[in-house]
Amino acid sequence: MNLSKMTEKELERYQEYCLQVGNEEALVEIDKFFKFYGKRVEVIKGRKIMHGTVGTVFYVERKHYGYQWWKGWVTRIGFKDDSETTYFTNADNLRII
Predict the structure, then answer these.
(1) Residue 89 bridge partners (DSSP)
(2) Exposure pattern of 18-36 as b/e (b: 16+ CB <10 Å)?
(3) CB under 8 Å to 22, separation ≥6 — which residues?
(4) Angle, nearest 10°, between helix axes 24-36 and 8-21?
């Protein structure tokens, strides 16, 4: 689901629906969307992107990389630095500045 194309009201309705049906991963994705989307972030850990790289978030999505349903969920963040270079990493590797 592309949360960035939803209006504030649509996001609130979607959040209420996910709460009613017990879709916990969607609720986490919405929470991370509100936390990160459009904000400036800095890479503080990880091995593929140089630490200290700074950019603006344009993409937030929950991904499942595990074989078991309850394990393996991560939040992927896409951001662009000032030279418009695009990076993707886990939310755990970033801090909001």
Answers:
(1) 77
(2) beeeeeeebeebbebbeeb
(3) none
(4) 150
Contacts of 96 (CB under 8 A, 6+ apart): 35, 36, 39, 40, 41
Give the three-state DSSP class for 10: helix
52 Rama class: left (phi>0) / alpha (psi -120 to 50) / beta: left
CB atoms within 10 A of CB 48: 9
Both tokens assigned to 30: 């919405």
pLDDT digits (tens, 9 = 90+) for 4-43: 899 989 999 999 999 999 998 889 999 999 999 999 999 9
